[in-house]
Amino acid sequence: MTRSLRPLFQRLGLMCPCKQTGEGRVARVHSSQKENPRDSQHASLYIHWPYCLKRCSYCNFNKYIPRSVDNKVMTECLQQETQTLLQLSRVSQISSVFFGGGTPSLAQASTIAAVLETVSAHTRLCDHAEVTLEVNPASAGRTALPDFLSAGVNRFSVGVQSLNDASLRVLGRDHDPVQALQTLAEARTLCPGRVSVDVMFGIPGQSVASWESELEEVLRVCDDHVSLYQLTLERGTHLYKQVQLGEVRMPADDVTASMYRSARKILEQAGFLQYEVSNFARQNAVSTHNLGYWRAQPYIGVGPGAHGRFVPRALGVAHREARTQTLEPDVWIKEVQQHGHATRRRIQLNHLSLLEEVLVMGLRMTEGISHQHWAAFSPETDLHQVLGASADVQDLQQRGILILDDRGLRCSWEGLAFLDSILPVLLLELDTFFHTHRPEDGQREQ
Ligand SMILES: C[S@+](CC[C@H](N)C(=O)[O-])C[C@H]1O[C@@H](n2cnc3c(N)ncnc32)[C@H](O)[C@@H]1O
Ligand SMILES: C[S@@+](CC[C@H](N)C(=O)[O-])C[C@H]1O[C@@H](n2cnc3c(N)ncnc32)[C@H](O)[C@@H]1O
Ligand code: SF4
Which helix (H) or strand (E) holds 159? Predict the structure, then answer.
């Protein structure tokens, strides 16, 4: 999981539909810590397009294969929900927009333009805001990439996944390597220096050697940003069933560990700097939208199943909320039409929950969590106080996988590969500290 992309949302159970509360109800958590209102004025915006042409064998993201899509209704609802959530929040400036999915390159360029116009009409969209669109190779031809550029997109994230025919078939992708290369080349011509590729490793049938040569090939054609995801076997997917039935075998853990290690070295040799567990950039082409997540900055999530973290205007107190929008697109449309938004779940984050997010997200970055970053969320307790005395934390440091020093807290190069075993230790220490020293900040839901 460490090398996969599953972010904090799922880790903290915020995506679990069985925990959803009714529309408009807030799960309140006692808290004495107010967020600095100035911090919550800048945010990023995520827009979810939930439709795909075909179900990939491994994917359990919130996506649907519809018979047809009513683009007009979807556009109106995405605009409406964007407007409502912007008005409900204290956000006055949007610094990045990310159109993800599903397959947002199946949306019409006019939809993308309409959403961006709504943002500009109701808040300030920064002049140099990063506006990313995820592009699937096969679907890119439907709306030409230049139209998306005219609509306001200035960064493409291309879902290459693999350049190997057999791997693409195992993954159930509906494109071949040639189509992926064509889409990538077109994206690079349109947005030089601002194209990312998603590539997966740990695919059944892949060996360390075949992965290494595949990555070398990716490096010959890619731009300045690469996201490497370890294929995660997700329950309920076709691949999961195939593995259960013994039709397909996932590579062993030590093999995927070697794949990750060699990929990091190969990327480094090619001039890429790793800035997060799965993300590599050269020429400083880092994704500011995703950095916002890892730095625990506020964001608004629009569209079926989207997540958000922001301080609402109406509460009267400056507490950040975690929000999840209704998952199923038809239900989401009805709710947006009736209420202006389809927030299915709202949780007020208490001080401890917010610090857990800062820790879990921050340690994914190679820069880790500086003392200043921590102090922005917890001015009254520093990292040394919370973690420094712990024998378990000292053990992690002695093993050379964790560093706590004058700069702050971060994983070592080796340690980043073990983040999933480091985090529970740190979260336990954080929890214990708060329950011992600041019990009023650590109370759970009432
Ligand atoms: C992390 S991946 C790939 C990012 C890509 N590698 C890049 O650098 O731009 C993006 C996916 O995460 C999910 N995602 C990101 N932000 C989200 C949010 N706020 N709510 C729900 N899903 C989100 C979406 O499924 C989206 O397609
Ligand atoms: C949810 S997809 C949306 C983007 C687009 N539809 C695509 O497939 O390229 C975002 C990224 O998630 C990654 N992803 C999805 N399921 C995954 C899994 N089970 N394991 C690892 N990565 C996964 C893929 O690399 C994909 O590029
Ligand atoms: S990986 Fe992308 S294209 Fe494939 S089903 Fe998931 S969201 Fe759709």
Answer: strand 155-161
Identity at 236, one-letter amino acid code: G
DSSP code string of 372-431: HHHHHH-TTS-HHHHHTT-HHHHHHHHTTSEEESSSEEEE-TTGGGGHHHHHHHHHHHHH
Region 305-321: mean pLDDT is 85
- Cα–Cα distance measured from residue 115 to residue 10, given in angstroms and rounded to the nearest whole number: 27
The interface pTM score, or ipTM, of the predicted complex is 0.98
List strands edge to edge, sheet with 408-411. 369-370, 408-411, 402-404
| Per-residue CA distances from 407 to 248, 382, 403, 410, 411 (Å) | 46, 12, 9, 9, 12
Residue 139 Cβ < 6 Å to ligand 2: no
Rounded to the nearest whole angstrom, what is the distance from the C-alpha of residue 169 to the centroid of ligand 3? Answer: 14
The predicted pLDDT at position 445 comes to 41
- In angstroms, rounded to a whole number, what is the distance separating the alpha carbons of residues 300 and 302? 7
Question: What is the CA(247)–ligand 1 centre distance, in A?
Answer: 30
- Residue 103 Cα, ligand 3 centroid: separation in angstroms? 7
Of 225, 287, 286, 288, give the one whose Cα is nearest residue 94. 288
**Binding site membership of 433 for ligand 2 (Cβ less than 6 Å):** no
Cβ of residue 58 lying under 6 Å from some atom of ligand 2 = yes
- A 10 A CB-CB count for 413 gives 13
Name beta bridge partners: 196.
157, 225
Minimum-distance ligand to the CA of 54? Answer: 3
From residue 311, how far is each of 15, 68, 298, 317, 319 by CA, in Å? 19, 36, 8, 9, 6
Mean of the per-residue pLDDT values of the chain: 90
Task: Tell whether omega for the bond before 102 is within 30 degrees of 0, i.e. cis.
Answer: yes
- pLDDT tens readout for residues 284-304: 999 999 999 999 999 999 999
For residue 96, the cross-strand partners are: 44, 130
Does the Cβ of 191 fall within 6 Å of ligand 3?
Answer: no
* Cα-based angle 207, 208, 210 (whole degrees, multiple of 5): 65
Which of 198, 203, 243, 260 has the most ligand 2 atoms within 8 A of CB, as the residue to mutate?
Answer: 198
Which pLDDT score is estimated for 36? 56
Nearest to 222 by CA among 173, 156, 140: 156
Answer whether 0.90 is exceeded by the pTM: yes
Please tell me the least confidently modeled range out of 25-39, 228-242, 291-305: 25-39
Ligand 1 interacting residues, C-beta cut-off 6 A? 5, 46, 48, 61, 100-101, 132, 134, 157, 196, 198, 227, 287, 290, 301, 306-307
Inter-residue contact 51 to 103 (CB < 8 Å)? yes
